Amino acid sequence: MNNTHLKTIMTAFALTLSVAGFCTEPNPDSGWTKAADNRIYAQSLVNEAMAKNPDLVVIGIHASRPGSDDQRMVATNLDRVGKEDDEDDKSAARLNKTVLVPNPTDPTRFEVLMPMEDSSGNVIGAAGFVFKYRKGDDQVKLLIKATSLRNEFAKKIKTKADLFKPIK
Domain tally for the chain? Predict the structure, then answer.
């Protein structure tokens, strides 16, 4: 894909986005857990990517446990592991939809939400990436970076069940 094509795709997604659901920060819920206490493989992927990418502010992996349809935030660097997914999170996986948008409440952040895949290319959930951003930054580069990170995750995941494997 060339740069012009990616910009056209990005603009189309931004125009069809339901910004309120994707960008709002819900109030903490007593059922959420801390990222530091999350001892599953998906959390190790988040921790590793955050450590290697100083341009990232947030990563969130959204999935349902095998045998369940209840999609939630299963790994993140924020203390909201277990947060129930909103409609945008769910539709990224269900409709194979990618969402790109500057955060309307924080202009220093740019958000990319995309389907999460396993190493066979099966959609197993959604991955959200929030980048540091200044007006005028190349949004196509942020899409490319998010896609690269998502693809690196996929190489390390044989099945959705791998996301939930315990780690020490």
Answer: 1
Q: What is the pTM assigned to this prediction? A: 0.82
Do 98 and 22 touch, CB atoms closer than 8 A? no
CATH number at residue 93: 3.30.450.40
SS3 79: coil
Q: 62: part of which helix (H) or strand (E)?
A: strand 56-63
Q: How much is the CA Rg of the chain, to the nearest whole Å?
A: 15
Best CA proximity match to 77, nearest among 61, 97, 65: 61
Mean pLDDT in runs of 10 for the chain (168 residues)?
Answer: 50 40 49 83 97 97 92 94 92 93 93 97 97 94 98 98 93
In a domain? residue 154: yes
The boundaries of the domain holding residue 127 are 3-18+37-164
